[in-house]
Amino acid sequence: MKNYCTYIRVSTQKQGKSGLGLDAQRKMCADFIAANGGTHVHEFIDVESGTHRGRKGLQDAITFCKQQGCPLVIAKLDRLARDVEFCFKVINTGIEIHFVDMPQINTLLLGVFASVAQYERELTSDRTKKALAVKKSQGCKLGAANEKYRQHYDSLTTEERMSIGSKRGCTRNKRHLESRDIQAMFRILRRVFPEQTKSDEPTDWDWKNINSKNGVTETIYKLMEDYHAMDETGQTFRRWTFDLTDKIEIQQKVGSYLFKIKYSINKSKNY
After folding, report:
1. What's the per-residue H, E or C state across the chain?
2. Is 208 exposed, middle or buried (0-12, 13-18, 19+ CB in 10 A)?
3. What does the alpha-carbon distance between residue 73 and residue 90 come to, in Å, rounded to a whole number?
4. pLDDT at position 88, please?
């Protein structure tokens, strides 16, 4: 029996927690492996946008397949990426890859389908931008509350307004924790503090013992630089500079960043 490894991905934390997108991909992969008389030995998961290139789950899956010499099964091509260059970069790692929705695919067809997926992504983005531009030209205040809502808000009691403010704060904090940089930092902390980050949920981590002591800040800083370098879009940790050499300055900056993350984690527990 041939051993197979699987990789599944969803784009949002909500999809990851509901399990809906994951279960559908999981079933497709399981059916493919069963049809080929194989055995499923390991599953790797990412809850990230396909535009992110530094995905830990995918990197771990590639490393595992290289070490074990087993093929990687992915439900659909767009679960790998909607980016031609990145698709071929993964293919060129040398591992055997099977896409369940395209079992007979070859290198030529892969390029065609990856190009189509990338084109669809670009079309969606372009349509959204144009629609917003039209609305703006018509005088609409994008993102601003309309007059009807303002009248409704003015009629609310102080308690009701405080409740709305609390919900907004919860949403902003949730988006902050789901941002590209924070998700990358969570993966870094899992590597640096494996004993304190055993839980799947960062809110359940041992945050008291995740700190900038014992010289770990330089390791964290170097890993942040690596994640920034791996992201060819340059978006991950784009507000950081990685030319610092003073250990005290590095400790202060990383320590401050960790403190802000802990603060957001504590806020999320209170909502």
Report:
1. CCEEEEEEEECCHHHHHHCHHHHHHHHHHHHHHHHCCCEEEEEEEEECCCCCCCCHHHHHHHHHHHHHCCCEEECCHHHHCCCHHHHHHHHCCCCCEEECCCCCCCHHHHHHHHHHHHHHHHHHHHHHHHHHHHHHHCCCCCCCCCHHHHHHHHCCCHHHHHHHHHHHHHHHHHHHHCCHHHHHHHHHHHHHCCCCCCCCCHHHCCHHHCCCCCCHHHHHHHHHHHHHHHCCCCCCCCCCCCCCCCHHHHHHHHHHHHHHHHHHHHHHHHC
2. exposed
3. 13
4. 78
At 56 the pLDDT is: 86
Are the C-beta atoms of residues 79 and 8 closer than 8 Å to each other? yes
Predicted confidence at residue 244, as pLDDT, reads: 85
> Can you give the pTM of this predicted structure?
0.45
Taking 70 as the pLDDT cut, the residues of the chain under it are: 12-20, 84, 105-121, 141, 143-146, 168-169, 270-271
